[in-house]
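FORM 7B - TANDEM STRUCTURE REPORT

SECTION 1: FIRST PROTEIN
SEQUENCE AND TOKENS:
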Amino acid sequence: MVEAAYVSNDPLDPFGYTPLFVLYGDGQLVKRVCEGGECRNLTAQLNQDAICQLINAIDRTGFMHVDPKAYRLPEGSGDLFRLSVNIDALNTAEIPNLDRWIESPEWYVEIAGCINCFDPPSIDPAFINLYYLLTRYPERDLSGLRSDRLALWITEPINAETPQPWDETLVSLIDLAERSICPGEPSQKQAVILEGAQAQAVANFLSQFGMSVPIFSEEGRTWQVQSRWLVPYERPYTCQGYAGLVPPDTFDTIQCRCDPAMGAIPSATATITPTPSITPTPLR
């Protein structure tokens, strides 16, 4: 029903899609939280009151009535930040570096090397309001998400680290590397997804190496291995399609009857003023 995510423009990005906030149709909420360079997924099962308070807050941002293209930014400003809401209606916007324009408005000046060599950014307040609402969603009632699907990205070594021996009790690294190559397209790579006990065993082994992207060897061959736990219905890059959320054909949903009197989650409001060429969507 609600999604905020990074969508990478970098063809070398191992996963290409990173969900930051997802509210599913059955009321499950997943939020990505990062502290000190380490990220983890938190989750909660929302009841009808909590869902309605979130929906009412989203309605007040004006996002459902804004043009998805109601922004103007300098060219080549980076990866996309996706905002999507699908409740009574659908609206989706993908805005380059929305988070950086909001949190650190001067970031592009440092890249461009000058102040007056590009037009000032213009972002409709509705996008900023929804960004604040989802990224500031309270974490006090969330707990760690226990995922059973681990995505592995296996490539030829990029750096010059000393290879570590692959644990011989785990699934063969040679087999995993072969599964990472698309059939009939040896130059095309895909993520390999492990599940259940096999996924947990590999994750436990990789956790010994911290935040680095280690190189491993098996039978005289070496590979670099990156990993990430997947949220429900997430698909990394595969031979069948791009990364993103891929829901099943049928799934349980909550039928909510939300009334404005049920209240809304408090949220910060927009602080970036759009140029006159874009009419801001008023809060309702």
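SECTION 2: SECOND PROTEIN
SEQUENCE AND TOKENS:
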Amino acid sequence: MTSESTRTIFPAKGEGANLLITSLCNQSCPYCFLKGWVTGNPELAEHMSLSDLDRVIDWLQVMGFDNVKLLGGEPTLHPQFMDIVRRLIERKVHIDCILTNGLAETDLYEMVNGSIETTWLVNVNHPSTYSDEQWNRLNKNLEVLKWREKGSVKRLGIDVNSQKLQLAITFYEPDQDYSYIIDLAKKYGVFFIRYAPSHPSSDLKNEYVDFEKFALMKSTLFRFFRDCAREDIRPNLECAIPACAFTQKELNYMSLFTENALFECTPHIDVMPDLSITYCATMKDIIPRYQVGEMQFDETLAHLFRDAVPYKGLVLPRCKGCAMFANAFCQGYCLRYKAEFLNDARSSVSGRRRTNQRA
């Protein structure tokens, strides 16, 4: 196991937290990493209250953290979504990004756009999964959210990282069709597509990509990189992937045609509607959770990241002798996936102890 110092990363000041403001969602994606928590039933949904939002803001701002991302579920389904946006504006908290499926009422997107400058990250599934009405609404909303500067972004020297609209795709099938999202990016002038293989939900009930499935999917990912590059679109990797799945030549290719290549998690502080805090929502039932206000922000971070160290540093059989793992370049894939190996090992040790005690 590697040392804590090489496997614990703290965010810089000025960064913030992911606020999962509601568990309500109007889609049921098979790959959803929050499967088992999100719900389509409004009566069962959890929502963050405005008073609890104030507690979160106080907790963040004491230590100088003043950025948040709004997530769900589908955040726009929160019954007080605009009140949350207004409260964050009043409290001088920057809404860095809103993650949405793009299916809310168009008036709502227009209202938010008229109030703040933020990045919209719109997750889009294959067109066959939508009704005609949904697909038309999605396209109407992308038109509302698209980049509106005249002329060439490159000629104007504008930092495209600040572009308001980005698209997202999750890969969960080896031969998955991705052409539609490149077509949408071209149609609405999107320069970045965020992508990730599907990682396990905390209850392992979603469609996720294990090592074997990732090996089958790799050729699809490389075609995706290539086709994005042809259209001057930068793929932006969201979650850690196993570096050992690639040859050095392939890693070099990725560095040329992708915005970033993640092989180790960067910290995500996920605040749930009940104000519990997780290192990552996929690990919410694996790593101990803490509460907003239970400790100072920096102390909470220290505990949270320390709890993740056994999973980050766990040496899987495929990681033994790997220089990339030893040098903390790669953590050996998603922590939730690795957690199963650690839990199995602990169960095995516990079983042997009980056997020895009976003997």
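SECTION 3: OBSERVATIONS ON SECOND PROTEIN
The two ends are 31 Å apart (CA to CA).
Residues 4-358 form a domain with the TIM Barrel fold (CATH 3.20.20.70).

SECTION 4: SIGNATURE
Preparer initials: ____
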